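One such shown below:
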Amino acid sequence: MKRSNHICVAVILLFSLGSCKKYLDQKPDNLLTEEQLWQTRANAESYLNNIYARLHNNDGGDYATIGASDESSVSIGGSGTRQMVAGNWNPQSYIGYNWSSYYAGIRQSFIFEDNIDKVPPTQMSDSLKQQYKAEAVFLRGWFFWKLLEQYGPFVKLTETVSQTADATKYPRAPFDTCVAYINEIMDKAAAHLPAAWTVSGNYGRVTKGAALAVKAQLALWAASPLWNGNPYFNNFKNNDGTALAPASYDASKWATAAAAAKAVIDLGAFRLFTNVDEGKGAFDPYLSVSDLFITSWNNEIIMANNKYGAWGWVKDVSPSPGAYNIYNATQNAVDAFCMSNGRTIDDPASGYVETGFAGAGDTSAWGGHLRGEWNMYAHREARFYAYVQYNMHPVLPAITVDDKNFYSSSANQDGTGRVEYYYSGKSGQVAANSSNITGYGIRKGVSPADNIRNDVVGYRPQILIRYAEILLDYVEALNESDPSHPDIVTYLDMVRARAGLPGIETVYPGAVGNQDQMRKYILRERQVELCFENGDRYYTLVRRKLLGNAENQAIYGMNVNANDNGQGFSFTAFYTRTLFQNRFWNDKMYLFPIYQTDIDNDNAIVQNPGW
């Protein structure tokens, strides 16, 4: 590839992309010239695919998914996430750093949009060029949205930037300006994209539905307390004194957020998935909430990374031996799941029992707990059994009886593969390669057709946005703007019904029309429905300014370090709630720091407050 101002013209001086320039100075024979790059459809599509490849893969490695919130922890003590929650990071730490990567994707999107028309008409039709442009524009908007979510106000770029540009002319834009710009980008993209794809070959490409969904996410972010008149940002200004955060609360932003989510609903392109969609007989809440994540595609998916195979995620969350046991659910997350009657466990009418072993298994049609499991896990809702791996619950990614017995000590080899998280168990603290730290694992996204013992994991897309999230966005925003609106109950009940739970108005009628009570149940529903997905719990706590609350920083698990002395599953001391970690918190952590080198390269950029 020849060095070309068209190929490496954007934000090199501004955002530490000097490596791009260094790379383009090389001229190996197997690299394309600029002229060759845009002469074939295949090359142009490869360039677009490279932009898609920058979609952030939150499953299996992202700080927000693997331990930055109260729902999980990563077992590796020296990992970036563990350092982050301990307060051991600074603007030079590079923990979870995406600023430069997102700007690299933005640069690529401009280059693609500026050059795709050079592809000869014999290679690509004008209509396909228009579609591909719209996809590149969407991806640009996505990267700007992710910048805003993680770092706050960004440097607004509307075109590629010359290498000789004056860096001092590129300060950060105010928050509301950033929101308006992302909305403008998504509207531009949506105008030339279908509501959803009907041809399987296009699954994974962005759509109008995805563009509207991002606008809904963005509007909810703008309405929430972090950016809606937050006094912590009163002195957050550019060097010229321009305020970067809204100074006062604007209640109308909640109505804007509700309308944005309703626009996705009104497209009529998406619906909640159930097992009936697969032709698996009568409705089954367990299969509905579990198979949603292991199908090749379904109508609940609004946006997904279609190149994702889930091998790493399944290997990391599944129990040892055979897997890594790296990501562990917490007691905090376990306590959020309702009982099968739809009541929370702190409700005296729920029937929840904290101690003792269950004398009988669940006799409901879809099943649940088994006889002899700890009562804490008995009679819980379907999502609990689909999403959480707990002591004595059968391992999921094991197919044959021999595979299941592989996870059991000799005394427990009965063909069920009950996971042994207790101290001396196969997946316990003293087992080879075991690192479970909370007594819980994660089942979400794991298939019974997987066999992690033999490193066999089936394909499934990584879902980035799905319809249930939009429904929860809608009811949350509507409750803040119009708490008596009947849609709150209607759409919240859709999510609950798919999980096999009775309607909120049946279980907690006093919450209907009561903004404070309904908010509590909506956020709890979100915590459960979207657990371990794309960092939703983390970002919900961030935008709601709740992450720093003491109850969300005290992380609990089971007593995994208590020696059972060979008692195995009968060892009751294992089931003692144990404080695993009191995390560090400072309000500056609501935003990530910008790497100091990037600030040094563009002295118009001000650092985030507190860093």
User: Anything to note?
Assistant: Residues 1-29 have pLDDT under 50 and may be disordered. Residues 554 and 582 are 5 Å apart (CA to CA). The two ends are 40 Å apart (CA to CA).
